[in-house]
Amino acid sequence: MTIYDYDSLTGTEFMQGTVCALGKFEGMHLGHRMLVERTVKEAAKRQLGSLVFAINMPGRQVINLMPERARIISELGVEGLVECAFSDDFKAMEAEEFVEKVLIRKLRAKVVVCGTDFCFGSKRRGDVELLKRYSDAFSLIAYEKLKEDGREISSSLIREELLKGAVDEAGKLLGRPYAISGVVREGKKLGRTIGFPTINLIPEKDKLLPGAGVYETLVSLDGRDYRSLTNVGSNPTVSDEGVVTVESHLLRFHEDAYGKPVTVSFLRQLRKEIKFKSLEELKKQIEFDKIELVSRAG
User: 109: which strand partners?
Assistant: First the structure.
């Protein structure tokens, strides 16, 4: 898959014509996957290029960092991904200009795929009804939002579930466990003093973290997956710094992992983060957490 920067497009990149999916695609949840899969299918049927036009919103932590999103989109078979920053110029663009300048002239769209709630252009004035007016230039495929347990699947809903610690519910909406990747760093090694050594992950600052608590997780390291307990939070029992960390205790792992890339996949929350009166109380609780984890593994 080729990744393009919107501001660098000249209009000559997609001369064969494209089937183009439009959206923010922040979470790459089940609804987004449906749009992208239809885009790939239509492109193959019509012998056109498959393209995703992704608008990047500024100023907040995201469910998927851009490299994570690109990997998922590429795995779905898309040929091209256009990354578009939501700049002041792009924000001020009139809806008709977006259709004529971006969709028709730059992206060479012959088929546009989007959600029925997709809005674009200055003051979000553009919508699917406006897109329908350009039927002589391209076909339109618009989907209603998917639902899970009666709720519309959206990145906003997934964000809410993650922040309250409901990673299992977020995983259902995403179609995969929520995951954080990074590099193992050297921590304070306090876990070793109570018999539960941990690996400490450095997540990207723009990556959204689940709410503070202890989670059942799978840690991928050196090509293997390890059942694990992961604490997300500030470790109030042993620190008053207020710095949020991601620390995982891996079952059946006794090696040095410093400096290695790691991915933590969140399966469910075991409990909220608690400030214990002593390290001994903390040790006892972690023992209970580990027993529950092992019992679920059978």
Answer: 18
